[in-house]
Specification:
- This protein is of the alpha/beta class.
- The protein has a domain of about 110 residues: OB fold (Dihydrolipoamide Acetyltransferase, E2P).
- It has 3 helices and 6 strands, in the order ααβαβββββ.
- The chain has a 5-stranded mixed barrel.
Length: about 160
């Protein structure tokens, strides 16, 4: 490696180190996973985790963290945007909000249950673009623990197609 290539690599490494440091004030407003929380308008203050204000990479990382560290999110109000998907179990239909990563190669989903204000026919159609918000909860099914959003409101739905 030549002198100029070595210097360029050193400069790039230094820029990465400097750009990763956050001022102390920025560190005060973080989500449970340590991701920067939104300083968006007041309407988002109703949410503990508002994924609509994150970049696509941060959304995927935050949902991944919800799945791997669910205790950190219990009873938090979460808002997310994605594609509605369904899965039929022997005793019910499970609805989920599917979120893709920045390159759309990997997907994660979060089950949601609409509040009692909604009738069964009010659930979105599979493939619809949705915005849903609710309370993050854990539940047991057999020997497994699952997470989902409960008491949800459907803020937006764009039919598939």
């Amino acid at each position: 490696m030549g002198k100029s290539a070595g210097f360029a690599a050193l400069l790039l490494a230094l820029m990465l180190l400097v750009s990763c440091a956050a001022p102390e004030e920025a560190k005060k407003n973080v989500s449970p996973s340590g991701a920067a929380a939104s300083t968006a308008p007041a309407e988002t203050a109703a949410y503990d985790v508002d994924l609509l204000n994150y970049s696509s990479s941060m959304i995927y990382a935050e949902v991944f963290n919800m799945m791997n560290e669910p205790d950190d999110y219990v009873d938090k109000r979460v808002r997310m945007e994605g594609i509605c998907a369904t899965y039929q179990t022997p005793d019910r239909v499970v609805y989920g909000c599917i979120i893709a990563d920045a390159t759309a190669c990997c997907k994660q989903g979060m089950e949601f249950v609409l509040s009692d204000d909604y009738a069964p026919e009010d659930y979105p159609a599979p493939g619809s673009d949705i915005v849903v918000s609710g309370v993050f909860e854990l539940y047991q099914a057999g020997e497994f623990t699952f997470c989902h959003l409960t008491d949800c409101t459907l803020e937006a739905e764009t039919p598939a197609g």
